[in-house]
Amino acid sequence: MAEFISIFSQLGYVLVPMHCLKGYTSSKKFLFFPIQSNHGCLKSYLYIARMKKVLVTGGAGYIGSHTVIELLNSGFIPVIVDDFSNSDERILSGLEEILGFSPVLYRCDCTQMEEFRKIFQSELPDAVIHFAAFKAVGESTEQPVRYYRNNIDSLLNVLELMQEFNTRDLVFSSSCTVYGQPDELPVRETSPQKTATSPYGYSKQVCERILEDFCFANKNIRCALLRYFNPIGAHPSGLIGELPYGTPNNLVPFITQTAAGIREKLTIYGNDYSTPDGTCIRDYIHVCDLANAHVKALEWLDSHPQTCEAFNLGQGRGNSVKEVVDTFVKINQTPVQAVMGPRRPGDVEQVWADVSKALEELNWKTTRTLEDALKDAWRWEKHLAQ
Ligand code: UFG
Asked: Domain map of the chain by residue range?
């Protein structure tokens, strides 16, 4: 069997167990192969498919791992490249349990050009989704050079390798942080970008600019810049989710860790903002909805030559910090000790997205609520405690 699989994968085909096929729609791409068990009776079906191969840098990370599942469910072949600087084996075993097999994985830091080139050479991807980047806003203000070096070098390497190996499509992981505190809400893709409030935010602005220049100079490249608002939640299985190292910076992991007794209390950073309850407002989006947008973006690129387009990805509405905490407590029937504290430096007061472009162009919108996300985040936290 192993030999059989290896021959097909060398030819650019993939075998997918039938029970993992939920969501596969393009059935004409598949052949059906009945597989015999050792006892001669029909055991399962495997599908043989020639699908688009997508290199997913940072594919073992929070958004990357959920995207790997969406890609497989939509008929793409994901190939993970990750240096595990912000992930670990638990995500791999969770992925394996959800999928029923282990996706192809390379342990590689994308700033290491020679190693990275070998991956392109052996995989010859059709597309890249580039997640691999450092992302902690606070940390970036303490280690700006490390952030610029990693986030910009890895993108430059991706682009050079795409040119070298004729890879055409790129989906780039950007952030609503490129807007700063916008003058108008909801914020649109065309809204003016304010000065970034952190090196992390500036690295995303610079990367977007690099991509615009790159697409201008290389007319065969197609690129989608996905501006994430605040991704939260976890896979509904509770088997993969966000894995913060040390004390979490982000709100939802801090809430779940406080509910689990790992943290004594949550500090709400500021209740004197000009918002209805005085706490900051963000546009929280379920990570599975966000993952699905990457598939939609790849499909969209297929019919849009010569493009470099930005898309906002959020719910299209804002919730305050206090609303998130209250919703968590209510939906999970679990107390969270919360105290008011001073403002956190660098926080914008309020931001939420106009998501009409993603709906019109990508035919994408969110299907999960804040409640769903907070339930799933709690399920994941409890799984981690097992
Ligand atoms: N917050 C608290 N207490 C905490 C943690 C957060 O009150 O312990 C508040 C923050 O002050 C903020 C809100 O919860 O008002 C959300 O904070 P997060 O840290 O979860 O998210 P941010 O909006 O600061 O940042 C996130 C991502 C960034 C991304 C940015 C874009 O972490 O990567 O959204 O706005 F760039």
From this structure: 51-230+284-316+354-367
